[in-house]
Amino acid sequence: MLGKITKTAVERLQPGELLWDTAVVGFGARRQRRDAFYLLRYRLNGRQRFLTIGRHGSPWTPDTARGEAKRMLGIVAARGDPATERQRSAETFGPEVERYLERKRAAMKPRAYTEVERHLLNHAKPLAKLGLAEIDRRAIALRLAEVELASGPVARNRVRSSLSAFFAWAIREGLAEINPVAGTGKASEAVRERVLSEGELAAIWAALGEDQFGEIVRLLILTGQRREEIGGLRWSEVDFDRGLIALPPERTKNKRLHELPLSSAARAVLERQPRRSERDLVFGLRQGGFSGWSDRKARLDACVPMASWRLHDLRRTAATMMADRLGVLPHIVEAILNHVSGHRAGVAGIYNRARYLDAMRDALERWADHVTAARDLH
């Protein structure tokens, strides 16, 4: 429909409605499901084209958007393409990713934010200088293929999800017309069953340094916990009086309090960590705890020539060996891992929690002795 584009007219638009301005030919406003966007329709080399100016709101008002439309029409009159000009502007992938991350920081959990930040700033870095309109499906597919080659199929799929979420946001902001991630392939993620041998555990332990990464890996071996749980450990979660770690629900995968007894060896690792009054984190300096996992793991791999393995394999190895080598009962292994299944589900799991702590402590002490014996033997 035709009419003068004003603030009132734009805000009255219903989803799907399009209003063409009577003052500037080709200047329009369209409401999507929630937000309204200003756009320009123009003809270049015999073809009609559309270009989004921006979302209604600061800085785009009817007047500023109309002025931008006039400027773009001037480019068309000079036989130029305003779309190409905008690709060279600040609306490139890198700056818009920074703005996107700043918007998301407050709404995401630290661990999730750190992962998305790594995906978009590190894995997608080759896209940083490209205009959003330049990034097509082929560019995304090539980048994902390179990520898979360097870091594996799981990394490819996680980066793909982060990119897709970013471009969905860019569309809502009026910065992009399509999501170029749509239609790109997802990699098959093979189920991992890697269990390390005692010799491999001993080799890893021997190669660990005295830095924070080395201490974290020692705790991963001794406790069987997830890397984010240990890497993001707080002193407020360590109870030396009771001899345990108490992970609050917001820090566990199943959103349940997890009380983990400390073996003597695990306690010794924690007791030698320096404490700083100004921060609660045991490891790392950032809000989410330790960072730099990939780089430090690669350096460790260079020191330990063995078949490919991941830090999560330490958790599977601890669980498997406690059950197979030490005869720890399944429900105690599940309690240590903070798994909730048939043995620990429902009311019975809650009432048995106190009784499990003693059995968990005994199992973890025996597991620490087993690791020490393997280390000394090899």
Question: In words, what does this structure look like?
Answer:
The chain is an alpha+beta fold. The protein folds into three domains: 2-82, Double Stranded RNA Binding Domain, CATH 3.30.160; 93-172, DNA polymerase, domain 1 (Orthogonal Bundle); 198-377, Intergrase catalytic core (hpI Integrase, Chain A, Orthogonal Bundle), CATH 1.10.443. Helix content is 49%, strand content 10%. The chain is built from 16 helices and eight strands. It has helices at 7-11, 62-77, 82-87, 93-105, 110-123, 137-151, 153-172, 198-207, 212-223, 227-231, 264-271, 293-303, 312-324, 330-337, 346-351, 353-377, and strands spanning 2-3, 18-21, 27-31, 36-44, 47-55, 238-239, 244-247, 258-261. It has a five-stranded mixed beta sheet. Strands 6-7-8 form a three-stranded antiparallel beta sheet. The longest helix has 25 residues, at 353-377. It starts with a strand and ends with a helix. Mean pLDDT is 89; it is low at 342-351.
